[in-house]
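Re: the pair you flagged

First of the two:
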Amino acid sequence: MRKILLFVFLIFMGSAFSQEVQIALLKYKGGGDWYANPTSLPNLAKFCNKNLNTEIDTEIPTVEVGSSDIFNYPFVHLTGHGNIILSPDEVENIRTYLISGGFLHVSDNYGLDEYIRREMKKVFPELDFVELPFNHPIYHEKYTFNSGLPKIHEHDDKVPQGFGLIYQNRIVCFYDYECDLGDGWEDAEVHNDSERKRNEALEMGANIIKFVFTQ
């Protein structure tokens, strides 16, 4: 917990971007493919370092939901296509992490929605995911998205939505649904997305990072 509190202090002092930061991929149980997008976070880190002047380590560690190591990372990313199950100890651990200053980004890789909603309700039974309006700062931090999240992959051809869990006036979790930012961050040859789509995904990812580091 100490590192998260130190990081929050650095943000308050306005020097967060001058300190090397590690972000992490969240590993969970239940059968879902938590490992689905291996190139996404390194690419996002490189993009942010180039365009936001951050110093994010491009070597991305994996951390388990129930591990005390999660407190070493101010930002953790969760993705996948299927089931996720959190044990009572994991629920308690990630709740403590989030209310202590940590941040969770969830990117639905298609098929995650019903499971992440169910499990996050265990973590915050008093909260519901709230769709963020298009004028929310997360869509305008560095790059402007006047219509909210970009549509990276079609899936069910639904409108992409960005949801937040808001605890004591702070967003502790941002969830991109029907958007698939994580796929958009991957190497170009993985999904054969256009350069424009990949750039949109990376720009929105940079907005999330900047928002997390300065909210």
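Second of the two:
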Amino acid sequence: MVGPRGRGSNMAAIASACLRGEIPASVSMVIASAAGSGALDVAQQLGISTKVVVPGEQYGPRLLEALEGCDWLCLAGFLRILPTEVLDHFPNRVLNIHPSLLPKFGGKGMYGHHVHEAVLAAGESESGCTVHLVNERYDDGMIILQKKCAVLPDDSPDVLAARVLVLEHLAYPEALTKVIRDRSR
């Protein structure tokens, strides 16, 4: 897992699914871009190794060094483009989750409440989440899985975000299981 900036709930959902045997893998490392992330605390409570890799000079090589031994990358709360050398090292093995039904409401600056506010402002009747492969552009990679929910007339961004987060915790483990099994065939 790379980039958890928030509370780490998607990372915890994946780690828990691995521990239950639902995903044929284990979470071996959680990497954050700054110390003090709630996700790092959750990872440590789950017994998962953690590292902090601060963006800046030689970020790509330093990130690759921290990821040594990993087969897959799952981004959660990673708000930048991955360095080319990382994408090249993990071809079609980097996943991300986005809190909308891509391609709608994706791209630079579209994260968290910005997404849910945009969905409500557009008058959408449904929202949800998307797990996709990562490439050199924001929220542009091949879609692996989407889960949908209704947008209700009285929804606020917070209420919609909570409903979508429930779907994220289901979608990410399901999508990761799918790509791992598809690759092993």
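Strands lie at 29-32, 49-52, 73-75, 94-98, 126-133, 143-150.

-B.
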